[in-house]
Amino acid sequence: ISHGIGTLKIMEGTKINNNTAASYGGGIVAMDNSNLLIENATISNNTTDQGGGIRLIGTSTQKIKLEISGNTLIDGNQAENYGGGIRATHSDITIKGGTISNNSTNREYYPSDKGNHGDGGAINLDISTMVMSGGTITKNQGRNGYAIAVFSGSSLTMTGGTISENTGQRGVITLYNNGQFILNGGTIKNNKATYNDGGIYVDNSLATNKYTYKSGIVCGNTLTNSYETQTTCPTS
Q1: Is the pLDDT of residue 111 over 50?
Q2: Is 39 in a helix, a strand, or coil?
Q3: What pLDDT is stored for residue 108 in this prediction?
Q4: 96: closest CA among 40, 34, 164?
Q5: Distance between CA atoms of residues 69 and 37, nearest Å
Q6: What residues contact residue 119 under an 8 Å CB cut-off, 6+ apart?
Q7: Does residue 173 contact residue 163 with C-beta atoms inside 8 Å?
Q8: If pLDDT is split at 50, 70 and 90, which confidence band does 112 have?
Q9: How far apart are CA 67 and CA 35, in angstroms?
Q10: Beta bridge partners of 79
Q11: By CB distance 3.0 to 4.6 Å, which of 13, 26, 57, 106 could disulfide with 46?
Q12: Residue 235 CB: number of other CB atoms within 10 A?
């Protein structure tokens, strides 16, 4: 689906599955000051280079708005480079519910490789904002920010929901190049990195990368770092 200008509602029972695109948005591409409302729909097993499930392409003057709610499932999508589930540029994302799971980026990570290919197994934010108040992001796989990559002046605010059981090389949530993350609720638990910082990774080479903790739970992530809030995780 390619959408531009106005509001597109993708509602109850809609399935966007098993599609392939050469460059952007295996399932959906949105641009030109458009709004997407996705509720109780399924976007699964789509593939492309950027934004396996959804690609949002806004501009500084024409932002894209995406809202995900209900029992929406974004699952099993793949991107070669950025955002296995979603890649957003100049966009505002609100996640109120649903599940984003089993999405992946295919590029491998090597410590000597300074590029950002393969980042954001579930979601890649580029000059964008995201607010997560509910829902689950789980079992995604990628490189840096193997659940959520917060890059290029983007910001993430989490007030609810759960981010768990994702796997990758560094930081289930990664802040690079002026990335901002405010944790004010919700749970980040049991994610696993193979290189370092299984939970939250902040690139300290830039002082403008900023993590602010207000409330919420960060636990059981490996490899561990100083951002863990407790040594044991809730069972539910």
Answers
A1: no
A2: strand
A3: 56
A4: 40
A5: 8
A6: 82, 105, 142, 143, 144, 145, 149, 151, 174
A7: yes
A8: very low
A9: 8
A10: 48, 105
A11: 26
A12: 4
Nearest Cα neighbor of 20 from 42, 53, 56 is 53
Contact 16, 45 (CB under 8 A): no
pLDDT in tens, 19-71: 999 999 999 999 988 999 999 999 999 999 999 999 999 999 999 999 999 99
Which letter does DSSP use for residue 139 in this model? Answer: S
Q: What is the pLDDT of residue 196?
A: 85
CB 121, CB 103: distance < 8 Å: yes
Tokens read off for 181: 């993350």
pLDDT (average), residues 147-155 = 96
CB neighbours of residue 202 within 10 Å: 20
Beta carbons within 10 angstroms of residue 116's beta carbon: 21
* Omega within 30 of 0 (cis) for the link into 223: yes
Strand-strand pairing, 167-170 and 141-144: parallel
Residue 210, both tokens: 């900023």
What is the layout of strands, in order, in the sheet containing 78-82?
A: 47-50, 78-82, 104-105, 141-144, 167-170, 192-196
